[in-house]
Write the structure tokens for this entry.
Amino acid sequence: MDHREALIAASSHRVRQGGYAPGIEVNGLSLTYPDEPNALVDINLSIPGGEVTAVIGPSGCGKSTLLRCFNRMNDMLEGCRYSGSIMLHDLNILDPATDVTALRRRVGMVFQRPNPFPMSIYDNVAYGPRIGGVRRRRDLDEIVENSLRLAALWDEVKDGLGRNAAILSLGQQQRLVIARAIAVRPEVLLMDEPASSLDPISTLRIEELIYELKQSYTIVIVTHNMQQAARVSDRTAFLNQGQVIEYDVTDKIFTNPSEPATEDYITGRYG
Amino acid sequence: MMEEKSGSLGARQHISTRFAEELEAIKNSLLEMGGKTESQIRLATEALLSGAGDTAEEAVQMDRDINQMEVEIDDQCARIIARRQPAAFDLRLIISIAKVTTDLERIGDEASKVAQMALKSTVRLPVRVAENHTTALATHVSNMLRRALDAFARLSVDAAVRVMLANKDSMEDYDAGMQLLEAAIRDNPATLKSCMDQIWALRSLDRIGDHASNIAEQIVYLVTGSDVRHMDEATLLNLLDVSTDS
């Protein structure tokens, strides 16, 4: 099956339900910036495939930096240096030889503010597959519909796919961005505060979507909203000052954490 | 020697002082309810042994206050859950308070039953068959409750475990008292009603010990996060890494 065929097949809900979502193994990851020598310090995490892992911690603790390591977004920052390894199945993400463009097809990302391209709803979702070589209109139609269905947006936009994405509400735009991300058949979805700019109802829709998507994707979510982490994630990592203080199943973290620092943070005793 | 294992969690201040005040307020409400329940047991036992009707009436009256306190504390718990979404220690605190409140309310019911037995005995020829065992049992379960509430206030797992272990000690007086009362009924069936009242009182006192033990279990859960309900003694001691030496 070539890449084009794989994209079409992978965008089918039925195929994705049985899809393979690999885990991520982080070993001895340290990261420095010129003005931040301890941005991340000896991070070791085993993130299971097909689950939602939340990363929580105070501002500046390194959680977004950690997330950006998973698709090498930090490479764009001058002076950024890292050591250790991040294994996605048999691929070392941090290996300088890793094809970053190919990596980002496998590891999609959704940001805090929805960032639809200034084009139609259809073209937003079809953008990645077109770059990936899908040209036939029928194939693109199938990918767009499947992706929008997976992102729980199809019913709301199916009668106006040619409209500019900018007319959608913020919550719809964020779901469109998720549809765009999954249209290129990633294995991992990174979400950096995906609902922080949304109203409570749109937030619940995104959380419901995360729950649905985890059947097919490995999801890592960074959030400041601890109740959100508690609601959507299977595992939670608490970071502070660039270090993983505690990493455990979410039920344990939110009812009986092992580390006093975690306890202080999630109960609001953190200074 | 059992090492002191007390909870230090919750010692640090919340960033939200209002939340801290709300938690402090609900803890104080619970301890106030516990204090009232202790007083009620003392009055009910006094009334049972002395036959003083006014003391018994006072104990029965206190049950209404205790019931009202249960409703108010439950309401406080619901409001904190709705407004604060507590987690970790704070969550366990609210869950524990809600459960301890239920046990205290049931202790109030049992103490009220003891007081009602006292009211019945004032209109009947008193037969004090198991007075010593009743007194001893009442003292024992009152102590259990007092120590359980003290353990709650200090977040002391060791003190809580001692309360749980003390529950089996109440069986001796309970069984001995029951045997005396059963023998009295056999020997003189005319004492049946009075002895049955005393049997019900003994059973209520024994149940108070069980509820005090339940409160102690909640303290272990609150401090350690471990659910030790329905756990046998050996497993409990092994889990908590404590010995029975005192």
